[in-house]
Records
---
Amino acid sequence: MSERTRVLVLNAGSSSVKYQLIDMLDGTRPASGLVERIGEAGGRLVHTPQTGGRRETLQAFPDHTAALKAVAEELAADGLGLDSPELAAIGHRVVHGGKRFTEPTVVTDDVLKEIRRLIPVAPLHNPANITGIEVVRALRPDLPQVAVFDTAFHASMPEYSARYAIDKAVADEHRVRRYGFHGTSHQYVSRATARLLGKDPAEVNVIVLHLGNGASASAVSGGRCVDTSMGLTPLEGLVMGTRSGDIDAGVVFHLHRVGGLSVDEIDDLLNRRSGLRGLCGDNDMREIMRRADEGDADARLAFDSYVHRLRKYIGGYYAVLGRVDAIAFTAGVGENAAPVRAAATAGLTELGIAVDPELNSVRSGEARIISPAYARVAVAVVPTDEELEIARQAFALVHQEPAETAGPADPSLPLPSESPEEPRSEG
């Protein structure tokens, strides 16, 4: 293998940049960090080298260009700069790849042009992703820049899953279909769940529940996504931190015609003032559970609504798959909120689904089974690692090898899971 064994993973969100430098020989993270509040007065950069000595910089970052240049400087200060001879590629998380991008793709001018063309269906994220690519291309033009798309894993859905039942010509003209998101997480977790069961991913049917501030479910059959809860945008599906999830489209017309709300106001309502926050004023699941335990009726309603939607999707995807080998909980809420896991699977013993209370109560950063031995369906907690998945795919593309064999099977230094209340930049 070449001495170029490291991949820098960049996740440029609408107002933040997350980054990790990953060594594909052993999964170690020589450095990681976050720039947040880009474009605001109180910007912050937190840089954590593997050697220790976490550094925090408080300053304004007027745009993503300034933020990414600051990241490059922090890496360089530790001898890990963009000119490092160990760098094999830079992997960029790109939220929306439309129908064209169904695999990791080396960035060219034509690829950038197409990602830009998709901005109308990802207006908050694709522009930031593009900026991240452009800045790093300018800083290191000789290095392969690989775009890894959130939507790519879901491209395997059959047309009857991906299509909405609206006029086909109108849908095609405006690219209206189910794309799905959190794809790198669903791909990583479904494969890791198969390993946990000691089976080949091609033999396993898994329901993946990615539960963070943004939340989505997927039905994965033999390593391929056959259905997912998010749609044209990340608004559809589960009840989320601030998003409504599934809703009668007529509500939009009613709010406009009867309530007098503008389209932008309705957009803001459904994306930022709905979900858990809309029901109880809070989108921190820990706080909601605390309030519900103390008898707060609004918090109890929010929790019950959240769980009810989860159960509907578990049952629905059980029917879609026909046979379910495992249900995997992941991301901040999925990995940390034992009461959510217990409530979402309660009363499903006729489907072969059960959770062992003692196993469920254990807090661990490791992938683990929390169902009793007699359960027909394994219920698992599987920490996600989207950055490693992006690095794998980028490294595999550069080296022309299968992504599942690129780099370590499991990272030797897994990062802490996302906290339940922490918003994710995927939307």
---
Amino acid sequence: MQTSYLFPGQGSQRVGMGRDLRAAYPDLIAPVFDTADEILGFELSRLCWEGPEERLERTDITQPAIFVASYAAYRVLAEILPPPAVVAGHSLGEYTALVAAGVLEWTDALALVRRRGMLMAGVNESTPGAMAAALGLPAAEVERICADVRAETAAVVEVANYNSADQTVVSGSVDGVAAFSARVLALGRAEVKVKRIKVGAPFHSSMMAAVEAEFAADLARVRFADPVLPIIANVTARPVRTGEQARDALRTQLAGSVRWSDTLTTVLGYGIDTFVEVGPGRVLSGLCKRAYPEVACYSAGEARRIETIVGAAGFGVDAGLRAS
């Protein structure tokens, strides 16, 4: 079995994430959440497990919460299964992927994710933004509509995520995204839809360039090792070869587009026959199943799903760590 671990980004959060992993593997997972609480200076664990949902959806909270929940799931898989052949992460998920690839210590990654979330939330406070997903439109047509809106209104709207052949996410100013959405709906095509995304900032747009230099200084203070296994970067959809390349990829990613569809194409070039989404939710699993129905796909955000993966991989639960 040739497996790729894929780590989710913002939007995959839910109240209760990581709680069953803590119950099933207390010796392994409790220290992860305890350490995260200590580093952050507040009870992230309680917010993950109990909410309230409105606070968990704040960008500065959501990002470290998803990172820690994803890392917890990865820790369990790392104790049970052989290493994956290649890893990748969607936006925020790239930080967890870098931990899995041996580039970042998880505690350093957590501090960076917390800082990233705070900077992104700060951009939205000073210059409110929005995001929307265009469904059923080719990416080239989405790009054309964005260009038309910018030319005619001077509002910011740009492609943030190339998620799949028929799903492209745009990001920018509130007015820009609203104008884009109106134009998509005006096409009058039954198969074409536009859906506003509940986020706390205009991610992966030029509006994030305002904090790029500040975040670059944060990245410069952290050690980045060379990868010990292949990791594919969002902004290039190509492998990261060195720690310095990884550092630069995270800096560029702030205002750059997530080329997820191309990333999956690159991942498949490693002979992958199984995708595993490692973390809360099933957003990436859904994208993989629609794009590559012939490739096995699992989600590993919960203890019961991890046991399913272990069984499918030909390992009994007794082969590694046993759930309590």
---
Amino acid sequence: MKVLVINAGSSSLKYQLYDMRDESVLASGRVERIGMDSSIVTHEPVDKPEVRHVSEILDHVTAVKRVVDMLTHPEFGAISHLNEIDAVGHRVVHGGEVFSNSVLVTQDVKLEIRRLFDLAPLHNPAHMMGITAVETNLPNVPQAVVFDTAFHQTMPNTSYLYPIPTVLYRRHKIRRYGFHGTSHSYVSAQAADYLKKPLESLKMITCHIGNGASLAAILDGKSFDTSMGMTPLEGLMMGTRSGDIDPAIVPFVMNKEELTLNEVNSMLNKHSGMLAISGISSDMREVTEAMLDGDKNAKLAFDMYAYRVKKYIGAYAAAMNGVDTIVFTAGVGENSAALRKAICEGISFLGIELDEERNAERRKDAREITKDSSRVKVLVVPTNEELLIARDTYNLVCQANLS
């Protein structure tokens, strides 16, 4: 079975085609600047040269048409005919309280995704455009949706409820949902496999650290708590997001600076975090380089970032009454040895003995970065959210065929 995985944004679309016999990637790519006359399609077939086209792509229907044309192209395609695509899996950011697992797309599922537009106005509408575009181009191919929030639906109410009037939860479902669920789910299972221990036996903290960042406390193999909240703004300091702040700052700054709701929302989401403190960049690589060159603001941004990750790890260790394993993943977590060192050396009281040589290694496979004698094992595990989406889609279609 071949599964096409799609991650649709408002003006972009990423894709990967998997052969589920061995879970190999046959081709991947992206469509950028959808809605413009200079849209860019980048297609990367395995064992063939990359292909890049610039043309007008005004909507997602056309974007998916270009993708399937690339996949079936006689020269640089990965398959001979569209009927080789057996299923399509989509990433959907918000599943609310309705979806605790991945599901096949039905009319009822699409209706629920639309009802959740208010909770993810920048993401869910784009995901629906992707689903609709596939229906148009591949009308008889089953589709599945995998939700970022689903993994965190196991959190107890002590973790997900906010201490505000409960009528707001009942009326508007204001609560902690958490995100990056596909990544936290994937790397926690991979970490357990690496350690050769049942996931259910481990108290684990997974650190998905990229431009957006979140931590998850995983207890008995399930999400027990996570740092992102009702939206991805809560929690850690991030590339351009503030993370946790005093809520009273919002009305105070709005009054003093005469900002609108949209302006303060943009400030907290796009102009805060490492970018705001460093004054240089939201990219950890650039901030670290500037810090090593003696830039004090870059060092402050780096130290604040590491400090806030350490605080959450300590909090989750307390919440679970201990921790066995800490996992770093995503772009920064997998590649910044300096950040991992700063975090681990600051929480050595937990029983972490960092091995600096292991930590400095640059590899693409799962690995331990603590000494063999370390009571708490710290791992670096590459994430692969697309593969998890492909697996869920494959399993759902197989189950439906059997029934």
